[in-house]
Amino acid sequence: MSYSVVFSSKTGNTEYIAKRIRRIMGEEGCAFFGSPAEADEGARKADVVFVGSWDDKGSATKDVREFLHALDGARVFLFGTCGFGGSDDYYNQVLSRMREDLPASCELAGSFMCQGKMPAPVRERYVAMLAAADPDSKEAKRAQVFIENFDRALDHPNGDDLRTLDADLREAGLA
Questions:
Q1: Could you say which of 24, 56, 83, 130 is the most buried, measured as most Cβ atoms within 10 Å of its Cβ?
Q2: Half-sphere exposure of residue 170, counting CA atoms within 13 Å on the CB side?
Q3: CB 37 within 8 Å of CB 9
Q4: pLDDT per residue as tens, the chain (175 positions)
Q5: How many Cα atoms occupy the beta-carbon half-sphere of 152 within 13 Å?
Q6: DSSP secondary structure string, 9-48?
């Protein structure tokens, strides 16, 4: 079985998941591994096309969305990472938006989404939000939630995330 892994990764989290997929699938059938900008016709025509993105305001990145739109009749497994995590509901919303970019001719083989760590300047921005807010305000509470989420994300993707990915790939009949 041939496969391709097409992904966008800003901080390395989604690339980490992409490399795990490649490791599990094996080198032998890999037709393509890389960004949507580099993807060729072979990447779109593999037996299974793994497509991943980091969460860009609740959806895939523009280049990933454009790649998804260009697929025709492909068997697709969607994956990605979100800085804001801890909620399967949120992950499912992001994956649902990614599915909306798939043409009707495509088959969704499965999907996976997990939390990913964020760069330090993001936390600094949240701390500045907290410092600028009235201590009892909604803004202060919101900033505190963002800081706590940032701190929880520091070890993601982790071993539990990878085990879930492995199980999702098995459930899709791909591993």
A1: 83
A2: 6
A3: no
A4: 999 999 999 999 999 999 999 999 999 999 999 999 999 999 999 999 999 999 999 999 999 999 999 999 999 999 999 998 768 899 999 999 999 999 999 999 999 999 999 999 999 999 999 999 999 999 999 999 999 999 999 999 999 999 999 999 999 999 8
A5: 14
A6: -SSSHHHHHHHHHHHHH-STTEEEEE-GGG--HHHHHSSE
